[in-house]
Amino acid sequence: MKEIVEKVTADPRYKKNVEYGEPRLGHPEGKVKSHISELEINLEKLKPRLPKPEYYWKLKFLIHVHDTFKAESSRDVPILDPNSHASLAKSYAEEFINDRDLLNMMQFHDQNYALWKQFESNGNYSKQDFKNLLDTIKDWDLFLIFNIIDGNTSGKEHSKLVWFIDEVKKHKKTIVDQSWIL
Q1: Between helices 32-46 and 55-65, what is the axis angle to 10°?
Q2: What average pLDDT does the segment 19-40 reach?
Q3: What pLDDT score was predicted for residue 182?
Q4: Distance separating alpha carbons of residues 58 and 56, to the nearest angstrom
Q5: Residue 63 phi/psi, 5° resolution?
Q6: Which of 40, 46, 101, 148 could form a disulfide with 138 if both were Cys (CB 3.0 to 4.6 A apart)?
Q7: Alpha-carbon distances, residue 122 vs 80, 125, 127, 157 (angstroms)
């Protein structure tokens, strides 16, 4: 997986797209490359706690690809829309890997935020969307660790991570709990 991350970071599309971004709500750091830098710091902080050695490079891959296609995406479209940044990132990732679970994590990396926004606005969220997520993701430890890495940056609220971890733990066994939040 290390070689794949090196191929991604050397790719001209990656190099171009990480320059995209201006400071905005949830991303005061602006450019995608600045977000990636923050996430790499988070990964290094969590590295001693990772339950499997292969998680490190899988997380590094997710870090480098998950938001890299915001520059080419349509704004404010559903997660499964073919022009969402998540769908474009997943399509790009398919050029490098065939790990279905990792590809699904790429596609649904912002689903926790979408569910939390629903819950925050009206005290409820789409149980069907949540069930689909629960059925789609297989490695919940890896997915939750990535959500913590991605959601524990300046401009993002920790409360959404706590809420999502608690919701998942009602349905899935995972070693991840609130103590993982940086």
Answers
A1: 160
A2: 83
A3: 86
A4: 6
A5: -55, -45
A6: 101
A7: 23, 8, 14, 18
Instruction: Please state which CATH class domain 2-180 belongs to.
Output: mainly alpha
Q: How far apart are CA 67 and CA 149, in angstroms?
A: 13
Inter-residue contact 51 to 38 (CB < 8 Å): no
Residue 164 makes CB contacts below 8 A (sequence gap 6+) with 112, 115, 116, 144, 147
CA pair distance 33, 104, nearest whole angstrom: 22
* Mean pLDDT over the full length of the chain: 94
| Domains in the chain: boundaries | 2-180
Phi then psi for residue 52, to 5 deg, are: -135, 135
